[in-house]
Amino acid sequence: MAAIYRALYRKYRPLTFDDVIGQEPIVTTLKNQVETGKLSHAYLFTGSRGTGKTTCSKILAKAINCPNVKDGQPCGVCDICTGIDEDSITDVVELDAASNNGVDNIRALREEANFVPTRCKKRVYIIDEVHMLSPSAFNALLKIMEEPPEHVVFILATTELHKLPVTILSRCQRFDFARITAEQIAGRLAVIAERERVQLDDDARFLLAKLADGGMRDALSLLDKCASTGERVSLQMVKDLCGVADKSYLFDLFDCLLDRDLGRAIALLDDLFAHSVDMGRLAQELLSHGRDLMLCKVMEDFDTLVLCPPDDRQRYVEQAARIPQGEMMGWMARLMKGADAVGRAASPRIAMEMLLVEITAAANQPTAPQVTAVRVSAAKPAAVPQAKPVARPAPEPAREEREEEVPLPDAPPPAEDAGWQEPAAPAPAAPPIPEAVPEKPVAAAAPAAGAAPQPLPEWPQVLDALANHNRLAAAALANSRAYLSGDLVLIASENATFLKMMRENARTKADIRAAVSEVTGKTCRLGPYREPEDEAAPTEGGGQKLDQLIARAQAQGIDVTIKE
């Protein structure tokens, strides 16, 4: 009779603490507790799937009860260790809370826990997916966890920590299991492939490690699937069997979006759909590719965080350089929202096409508002006899005109303490009233102090300083302008992502204030600002430059008038 085949993730499940990969701090702590005998009555293991929570629970149960424990490690060969591995020891109970989540199940556990163990030192209860318990079941579990018998140890495991009551959390020693790095997973896959005599290419191994998303169990399941073909596991095989879009398709799709070529992007999407590429997975791959490009744009050594072949590195750099800094946050926000929509859509293909249309349409819109400047004309009058000046039209000969951008008054800015809100649109300006031409042209009076927020000329230097503390906020503030009203810095930005960051992220506001203080030496508050439609972005120098121009013209004997 042929032996029953065991899945790789079961066959190569770690049996001792030293076999566990990627959780060294947790393993070291548990070994020390076993060796010194300072055990807790309740443990809580939390983390994403496939990171070793249940595995470490069983190893800890063996280490607690093994008669031959050494350096905190179970021997693995005694009757207790082998019995726990084979689930034949009744003193170690593994309960699946997903299917045993009622109060009656926990009541039965409480009654059983009062009996002393028959073969082991302690009775160990491993409750997997504990967040699935009902509220009444949690209350029943809480009663025994408050004052458990001396011979009972609870080990709770969950992937959704936020669903556990605070009363349960406060009675457990909590251990957070981190995602296993792709390099560690790839190294483990190489060892297992050698033991199983499976020919596994290096690029295929790294792709499997990346697809596992930090879970060793997922990586072994994918390897098991590819190795079952009986052939050499190549990169193309992994792509075909796992429904992964080729990296070249991701680069080509992004090139189409950057070129605003929606037709070619839809054609590429149709080709991928014809080759049975999963649209939900493709959306996630696009989001991951966008994240890689974002890191490439803000980090020189981005390949330490991005798992990419050496041949693709230069293409990452070239494509990232094509995305404007101010648009990167908008791209990522749309990709994140679209990837979630594609995963939940009844027709993922249509949702994916809508995502491409939305990104292309947004890319075709101007990133900065078009504003009109106030024109200030300086004209030389025609020569006249020395006589009393009279009112007369401006002379017809060609004249020299200079344009200056003048900030206009706005409504009183909101205080930062009131919360960051969307800047309200300014009230429409009243129609201009024709003014009589004075007998003698005079210079325009400067606005009264405090009548309008004044431009902050050091704003470009502030953005440079902000980039050293918060690159994402600095990118979102590209093409923005700033005004000063007392100790209040008003920021005019059309970037919706930046406005959301200011509402929800206190660190963003703190970083901007620190950058302003670093450049200007002043302590300030922040507020939003929306410029009137007829207001232009102030040039460097703002009103001071206009005053200098008027003074220079008067010094040369030039009459100055102001026209709307």
From TrEMBL:
CDD domains: AAA, HLD_clamp_pol_III_gamma_tau. Residues 425-435 have a biased composition (Pro residues). Residues 39-181 form the AAA+ ATPase domain. Residues 380-453, 527-546 are annotated as: Disordered. It comes from the Bacteria. Keywords: ATP-binding, DNA replication, DNA-directed DNA polymerase, Metal-binding, Nucleotide-binding, Nucleotidyltransferase, Transferase, Zinc. It is an enzyme of class 2 (transferase). GO terms for molecular function: DNA-directed DNA polymerase activity. Belongs to the DnaX/STICHEL family. This is DNA-directed DNA polymerase. It comes from Bittarella massiliensis. The gene is dnaX.
